[in-house]
Model the fold of this input.
Amino acid sequence: MISINLLPVREWKKREAVRQQVSIFFLSFVLLLAGLFAVGFAIQGKVSAQRKELKMLEARKAQLAYVNQKIKLAKKKSKEIEAKFNAIEKLQKGRTRTVKIMDEVVTCLPIDRLWLKSLKLKDGQLSLSGIALDNHTVALFMKRLDSSPFTKKVKLVNTRRQRIQGHDLMQFDLVADLAL
Done:
């Protein structure tokens, strides 16, 4: 017996092609969804690992905050100690400086011709008051002070003649700027 296919072959081939394309589409869609879920899970795993690491680092930071606080306190104490050492060093320099200035003034005095009544050292300035036999002695004393390495400029404030125990003497006042 001969069988005759009453269905048109073209329609059947078209339906088969459409069914095959739909199957391929759904299979591709399912594979795409599976791929997206896999990538999503991988990214989610990385994010959760990064969060765990962040929590661990924050805990470590909290542990080290105590150490940082100790370091800051040590630095602060170090600065305070350094400031105290600098102050002591400055005082040591000032202590010897005053003695050296006094020695230089005594060295510059014309012996048995000039006598000092007062000497004041304040704010880098040396004020002297005294009595001399004459103006020439005061000028000699000023010249010696001016050539001293401890003074920059010596100024005569005033001189006046004064009679002391029957002698005419010169009373004077000087101001010398100190070389710091």
The chain has a mean pLDDT of 89. The chain is about 60% helix and 25% strand. The chain has one domain: 53-180. Strands lie at 114-122, 125-132, 151-164, 167-178.
